[in-house]
Amino acid sequence: MDAPGRPAHAGSRASRRTPRWAWALVFALAAVAIVALEHVWRGESYWNFSEGVYLVTARAVLDGEDLYAGIAAAQPPPLFYLGAGLMAISESLLFVRGALGLSTVAVGALVAVIVGRITGRPAVGVAAGLAALLTPWTVREHATLTPDPLAAAPLLGAALLAARPGSRAAAIGGALAAFAACLKLAFLLPLAAIAVAARRRRPFLAGALVAGAALAVASFAAWGPPVWDNLVSAQRETGFQLGSLPGLFGQSVWNIGPLVALGALAVLARGHARDPALFRSLVALLAGSLALGVTFLKGGTYLNTLAVVEPAAVALAAVGLTWFLEDRSLLGGRRRLASVAVGAACAVVVLQSAVLFARPEGPFGFGNPFLSRDPGHELSEDQVRLAADRAGECPPGAPYSGSPFVAFVAGRTVPGGQPDRFIVGEAEVHADLRAQVGADGPLCPYRTLGGLPEGGSVVGRPRLK
Q1: Per-residue DSSP letters for 137-180?
Q2: Between 276-290 and 188-197, two packed helices, what is the crossing angle to 10 degrees?
């Protein structure tokens, strides 16, 4: 018997006859091929403002600039030092993105392991892991130097280790979750959720506390009070964005809702789980990740957070879909209607990814009517190269006031040396840096918004004023 009340079938027996190393090899070859193709497809296209901010900040750190005191930075130091470490090898955007693509492979591998262990079917795990590489927000945020896609792998690893019986595994899992929170403090929410479901809660919390405290002590020793000013005070002073909430929540439901609905099938059939502790840990990770929706209240927060939610949702959805297909008694007499709903949910996810690949500049169907525009890329690779060439025509030493992403590609400086113009413009704690930006110039091209250089694509030839 495969599980209580559920007979084994031929596909299950075939999966067990295939050695684990063979499934690992199949996944590795297919995953590397998918990520390589995504890398070529993405090229140097420009997808989100934050990536440019963090790229320019990491390059400044590599050049010896004073993080937090001299450069406003909204995230803890590991993100910037990761970027600086990669740039020490090569400052090519294609190299940095290629190296960061390994984190996407890790996400898929962890999804494969988790699903394989919960269902007892390695083939299903491999399929789920590969599917996790192709879902909408994982594709959109793939290989960007932003905390959200980079935190997905350590959080999945934390959930996996938190379900193991040993104290050492739990402690390592806690440390992994703490590392994710050290990429972005908001990820304390999924950390707390995993801790609640952890098989060995005390070792998990101890690992998280030790790792987090070590980084906090090291950060304050290196930078002192400016760390608090940047990571806490400035974030508090950015205010709220209540008017944007319908669009942000509507888009989240449109993208994540079908996966969560499929995951609900897994919760209904949770008695089928081969590893109940891991199932509980996965559900907790998804719940904690969904709780990140509260951060949409804060000014400047965007949908990038869905890159953390999506992998856990894919894993639970794969489990739910597997049990639904195997257990004819699940949902009883409503089976036919449920089959239509399940098929529709799968079709919506496939459609969203397909249109994103086909029309990245305006993926109609990936976005929803509540947003003012579909969340595709800001500039194609050709447009980025054109903008970078025009930025290169600026006089030597003139700060580039357009998008920080274009400034990075073109190798230009930014006004006042401050790539994060949003946090500098909004937070009172950064008043001195704001004055520094306003006094810099002449800029190229010259555009201002609220006293600070305006972002967006470069239109027309650069000019000085």
Answers
A1: HHHHTTT-SSHHHHHHHHHHHHHHHHTSSSHHHHHHHHHHHHHH
A2: 150
**DSSP secondary structure, 251-275, as one string:** HHHHHHHHHHHHHHHHHHTGGG-SS
User: Cα(35)–Cα(105) distance, rounded to whole angstroms?
Assistant: 7
Residue whose C-alpha is closest to residue 136's, from 447, 454, 374, 382: 374
DSSP state of 18: S
Please tell me the distance from the alpha carbon of residue 227 to that of residue 78, in angstroms, as a whole number. 13
* Cα(319)–Cα(282) distance, integer angstroms: 11
Nearest to 228 by CA among 346, 69, 340: 69
Residues 6+ apart with CB under 8 A from 195: 162, 174, 177, 201, 204, 205, 208
The answer to whether residues 141 and 160 touch, using CB atoms and an 8 Å cutoff, is: no
Reduced to 3 states (helix: H, G, I; strand: E, B; else coil), residue 444 is strand
Four-residue CA torsion sign, 51, 150, 263, 244: negative
pLDDT, one tens digit per residue, over 227-237 is: 999 999 999 99
Give pLDDT tens digits for 8-59. 444 455 555 788 889 999 999 999 999 999 999 999 999 989 999 999 999 9
Instruction: Reduce the DSSP state of residue 67 to 3 states and report it.
Output: strand
Model confidence pLDDT, tens digit, residues 350-366: 999 999 999 998 888 88
* Bridge partners (DSSP) listed for residue 452: 449
What pTM was estimated for this model as a whole? Answer: 0.91
The phi, psi pair for 414, rounded to 5°, reads: -115, 160
